[in-house]
Amino acid sequence: MIKALDSLGSKFQQRKFLFKQLVYRDFKSRYKRAVLGVLWSMLSPLLYFSAQALVFTFIFSRAEHYISYLITGNIVYYYFSDATTQGMFSLTSNAGIISKIRVPKEIFLFSKNISSFVNFLLTLIIMFSIVALDQMPFHIKFLMLIFPIVCISVLNVGIGYILSALFVFFKDIQYLYSIVCRLLIYFSAIFYYIDAFPDWIRKMFWLNPLYCYIYYFRQIIIYNNIPGLWVHFLCILYPLLFVIVGKIIYKVNDNKFAYYL
Questions:
Q1: How far apart (Å, rounded) are the C-alpha atoms in residues 113 and 106?
Q2: Domain residue extents for the chain
Q3: How far apart are CA 30 and CA 51, in angstroms?
Q4: Do the Cβ atoms of 77 and 190 come closer than 8 Å?
């Protein structure tokens, strides 16, 4: 019994060490040979946001706090796109380790997501800075943002499960997903309001998980409102569905991955 516990403890320590090394490697390799280093994680979304602001602020010039409306949509989208795209390559980029060491393959996906989450925290600095410049009041309800952040982080893992598994067998998935991400820019109400759409179209937006989190951010930051229970339900439902489906795909194909990597 004692030997079994010692063996389990040893494996845990080894996997913990490997996980830390993977997170450090993923974060470091992202900015390898970049002069600005980690500042790119803040500069890249800022430049993207600035381009949108330059164009769309004139179109929605009468909209109140449109700059805050735009930045919240961009920050949430950027986190989702970055984490899921990085997660897609989590298995193939670690093929050498997977072929030599038998460890839970989720560890590679989690390390990618941790790296993207750190970048997201840095971009939040930009968001709150712009919100302050837009003269939006900071209030206690901002703490509620922890809820959608946790939910979208779990969603990223769930989608990462599916994408990373599919990418092992179908390399074209990376091109298809890049198209999906571009389409999400236009179907997540990032830079426009949905009020002008008919009611049935507005309801269709809730089929998009990303819109749910963008909506939650805006309700807290711009409108000082806590969304209703049904919004919380959707925010929890989507991550659970994707994680369950992703875990099943991983379990079914666990022994096949090594042959295709």
A1: 11
A2: 2-260
A3: 24
A4: yes
**Full DSSP string of 78-115:** HHHHHHHHHHHTTTGGGHHHHHH----THHHHHHHHHH
**What gap in Å lies between CA 227 and CA 85, rounded to an integer?**
29
- What is the per-residue burial (b if ≥16 Cβ within 10 Å, else e) of 33-53? eeeeeeebbbeebbeebeebb
**Average pLDDT, integer, range 56-75:** 80
From residue 43, alpha-carbon distances to 143, 177, 185 in Å are: 25, 24, 19
Range of weakest confidence among 16-30, 52-66, 136-150: 16-30
**Which residues, 6 or more positions from 188, have their beta carbon under 8 angstroms from its beta carbon?**
73, 77, 205, 208, 210, 211, 214
Task: Report the C-alpha gap between 151 and 160 in whole angstroms.
Answer: 14
Give dist(CA 13, CA 112) in Å, integer: 20
Q: What is the pLDDT of residues 220-233, one digit of tens each?
A: 999 999 999 999 99
Kindly report the backbone phi and psi dihedral angles of residue 232, in degrees, each rounded to the nearest multiple of 5, phi listed first: -60, -40
CA 190 to chain centre: 15
Helix (H) or strand (E) holding 133: helix 106-133
Residue 12 vs residues 5, 7, 8: alpha-carbon distances, Å? 10, 9, 6
Cα–Cα distance, 46 to 225 (Å, whole number): 26
| Structure confidence at residue 54 as a pLDDT band (50, 70, 90) | confident
- Rounded CA separation 113/150 (Å): 12
Q: What is the Cα 32 distance to its own chain's centre?
A: 22
pTM (2 d.p.): 0.85
